[in-house]
Amino acid sequence: MLGTFFSALYGLAVYAFFLGTFTYAIGFIGNVAVPKSLDSGMPGPLGEAIAINVALLGVFAVQHSVMARRWFKEAWTRVVPHAIERSTYVLFASLALALLLWQWRPIPQPVIWSIEGPMALVLQAVFWLGWGILLLATFLINHFELFGLRQAFAGAEADAAKFRTPFLYRYVRHPIYLGFVLGMWAAPVMSAGHLLFAAGGTGYILIGIFFEERDLIAQFGDQYRRYREQVGMLLPSRRS
Predict the structure, then answer these.
(1) What separation in angstroms does the CA of 103 have from each of 97, 175, 221?
(2) 71 φ, ψ to 5°?
(3) How far apart are the first and last CA of the chain?
(4) Would you call 122 helix, strand, or coil by DSSP?
(5) pLDDT digits (tens, 9 = 90+) for 181-228
């Protein structure tokens, strides 16, 4: 019982840290309601800014990709109890994101596009729609298990996954990633720094999908292969 109590406390603390970091990240990407955003701050030397930003995106991508792989989890859980394995992954992911938000260097020029009027409002709506899709998609597949809370409170590893395609997953295989893409690209003003962030984030997503789907095929076999043939990856579509 004592172990379960501390696991639950750890899981709650990590989830609160993630929630705060991720909420800040939305404002950071949208340049809204946060003290430091993608385009705020004094620009420094261009080469230095690009090198640091690419390195930050690389740290984020490597942490997500490596720690999410099955072989890493099997080795990691020899050290970390199953009950807090997912929470620990979320902790490291949040730390990598916090580092990126803290150390990101603005590159405001050149401006790739600047849109005003009704179309700017449409882009803002798509921006918020993207984050709404992301949030909804996490609840469709079990939000609290995805972020480690269920495991931490139950004091055990997650149950064996069952292949399901609820709601959004019937029309797009990766609605969480789709939400990220919409949130990154739907910008009325697209600076060079924002473009670097969006392009780097999208590149990571495509690589992540490759490895994730390879794991899903290994786990679910022909069931997932048929699903992949029928449903679009990021663009919603469904074939009979």
Answers:
(1) 10, 29, 41
(2) -65, -35
(3) 50
(4) helix
(5) 999 999 999 999 999 999 999 999 999 999 999 999 999 999 999 999
Q: Residue 240 corresponds to which amino acid?
A: S
DSSP-derived secondary structure letter, 231: B
Q: Where are the domains of the chain?
A: 2-230
Helix (H) or strand (E) holding 113: strand 111-114
pTM of structure:
0.93
Question: pLDDT tens-digit profile of 77-126?
Answer: 888 998 999 999 999 999 999 999 999 999 999 999 999 999 999 999 99
Residue type, 108: P
Dihedral in degrees, nearest 10, Cα atoms 212, 52, 89, 174: -30
Nearest of 47, 205, 49, 173 to residue 38 by alpha carbon: 49
| Closest C-alpha to 91, from 46, 148, 141 | 148
Core vs surface per residue 127-145: b (16+ CB within 10 A) or e: beebbebbeebbebbbeeb
